[in-house]
Each structure stands twice: as C-alpha cells, then as structure tokens.
Amino acid sequence: MLVDVGEVQIATRVVGSGPPLLLLHGYPQTRRVWRRVADALAERFTVVTTDLRGYGDSSKPEGDDAHTTYSKRAMAGDQVEVMRSLGFERFAVAGHDRGARVVHRMCLDHPDRVVQAALLDILPTSEVYATTDRQLATMYFHWFFLIRPHALAEQLIDANPDAWMDNVLGLAGGAGASMSADDIEHYKSHFRDPAVVHATCEDYRAGASVDLEHDALDAGRRIPCPVLVLWGDRGPLTRREHPLNVWRRFARDVTGRALPGGHFFIDDSPDDVGRAIAEFLEPWRCGELD
C-alpha cells in the first residue's frame, strides 16, 4: 500500500502483530531485501517495511539545488509519519546502508519516537568522509561518483543501468549467490527508471552536503536509545577502526557484532540477522521499554 505523508507517498508493507518495528533498506535495494527477516520477525512484532523516498514504489520528487529533498532529515520524517499514520507513536527501527543513515538522523530528530535502533553495516556519514583513504575510495567509488553535479552521474547510469547494477551489487563483499535472480531483476527493473536514478543520486548528494551540515550542528549529541550495530564479517567495516568503538562516540548505549557475509549480509544471512534483531528487541517486545 501507499501511505501519503504529505510531500510524498511511501510504499509500505505491514505483517505480524506485537510491538511495532520499522525496517529500512539501503542502496540500491528496496523493502524487498527485508522480506525473509520481516516474515520471521512477524511472529513477535508488527513489522513495517517501506521503500525510502526515491526508491522502489515510493514517490520520486525532483531534487533541489540544496539537496534538501533527499536529506536524511526529510527521509526520516517520512518514516515517522508512516508509523504515525499506522497508529504507532513509538517504535523500534532497523536500517541497512542508506536506511541506517536515515535511522541515525531519526534517532536525533525524533528521540521521543524511537525506542531502540539497529544500524546495519555503516559508520556515521561524517566519520566516513573524515577518514576516507585510498582503500575506501576505491571500494566505495560510487560515493564520489554519484555526488557529481546533476546530471553527469544520471546520464552515465541511464546509458546502461543493468551494467551499473551488476557492478554496485558486487561491491564490498557483494551478495554472491545469496541474492536470487528474481531479486537482482527486481532491483535492476527499478534502476531502469531515470527517476529512480536521479533520486538515488540526490540521496548521495545530500549525504555529502546538507546531511553533513545537520551532523555538524549536532556534533557531540549522542543517540539516546539503545543501539545495536551489525556488520558483515567480509564487508568494509572490518577494514577500519572497530565499529563499536566508533559508534560509542555517537550513541550512549551500543552493542553489536559481525555476522556472516559481505555488505549485503541481510541477503547472505537472513536468519542470523533476524535472530540478532529479535534478541536485541526482547525488552521492547516484553514491554520493558514502554
């Protein structure tokens, strides 16, 4: 279903019953990435999966010169409004990749809404840019390609979106055989739409501009709720400062561990991801955090 949150409509799926849990995908995926995890968690939670604005079946507004349309603040606001529209004033949330960056901003902008948060395979955006070295720039070249002024990146990706997706889905440990042919075709089909390509470029442009401005204004503020950090044991976070050490500078209460897989470890190890999230959220399920 589509949930109207004012400026955009957000594609949304709801399964299960119990305390509310919002799951957010990253680049270049959609809510589909969570389907196996969501169905397992639905035994304990009301699980909401959405497409971020600009992705999948959600609205894809044109970007603006300041890139605020795709700021993590705007994207977090969308998701809070989705949950409010569904009747959930407070909820737990987990996000992977770009979705985790939305979660980080959501925890700072809406601390009264987020009870617990899980961040999958990211470090804070400001930390990534501050510590970029040759290895990261080579592995994550798309961070620097996608932020080129409109519309160079769009024109090049639109010329051969399938080749672009083959490359991006193989980054940072890839998903190997874990991502089915149907999954890959699903993601490719969306990137054949120039509106998706533009929107997702704007997501990254926001990350290199207005999102950093928001982060600078919040320097020193830490996420107040309990945070779970998960990362792939073959992914990029294993090559840098220990993720928990980094996140403890940005959040008050941090736990976490590596799980089997690369950057796309939700595809590699959905059962492990589901168990880790369920264990972390047990206090929320039991009503200890009402």
UniProtKB/TrEMBL annotation:
Keyword Transferase among UniProt keywords: no
TM annotation in the entry: none
Superkingdom of the organism of origin: Bacteria
Species, as recorded: Rhodococcus hoagii
Record-linked Pfam families: Abhydrolase_1
GO molecular-function terms, A-Z: hydrolase activity
Keywords tagged on the record: Hydrolase
Name of the protein in its database record: Alpha/beta fold hydrolase
Domain AB hydrolase-1: 19-269
